[in-house]
């Protein structure tokens, strides 16, 4: 009977998952880029990484309520955004990133 109790106490040790490695940021995203004159009106003229440009652009969109009410993926352009969006009245959020990249050098 003592053998059964000893066997019951020895439960297999729980396997620990290997520690997840912290993902290093992609260097091309972190490279500071100079915005065009049209984009500089929104995000500022000093060089910024692409990630910061997109953050500031989203802050502007949310502040000015430019996201479409029914389709949140659609961005409605105001007078400042139209030159950035190539004159389009509205674009999807996925189009927006490629159009913004064309405004960076």
Automatic annotation (TrEMBL):
Residues forming the DM2 domain are: 28-105
Protein name, UniProt field = DM2 domain-containing protein
Enumerate composition-biased segments (Low complexity): 1-17
Q: The organism sits in which domain of life?
A: Bacteria
Instruction: State the organism of origin.
Output: Myxococcus llanfairpwllgwyngyllgogerychwyrndrobwllllantysiliogogogochensis
Matching entries from Gene3D superfamilies are given as: SWIB/MDM2 domain
| Chain segments carrying region Disordered | 1-28
């Amino acid at each position: 009977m003592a053998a059964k109790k000893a066997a019951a106490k020895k439960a297999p040790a729980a396997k620990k998952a290997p520690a997840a490695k912290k993902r290093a940021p992609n260097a091309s995203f972190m490279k500071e880029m100079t915005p065009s004159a049209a984009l500089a009106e929104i995000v500022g003229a000093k060089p910024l990484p692409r990630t910061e440009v997109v953050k500031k652009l989203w802050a502007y969109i949310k502040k000015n309520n430019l996201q479409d009410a029914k389709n949140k993926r659609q961005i409605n352009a105001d007078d400042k955004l139209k030159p950035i969006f190539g004159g389009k009245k509205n674009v999807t959020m996925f189009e927006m990133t490629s159009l913004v990249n064309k405004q960076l050098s």
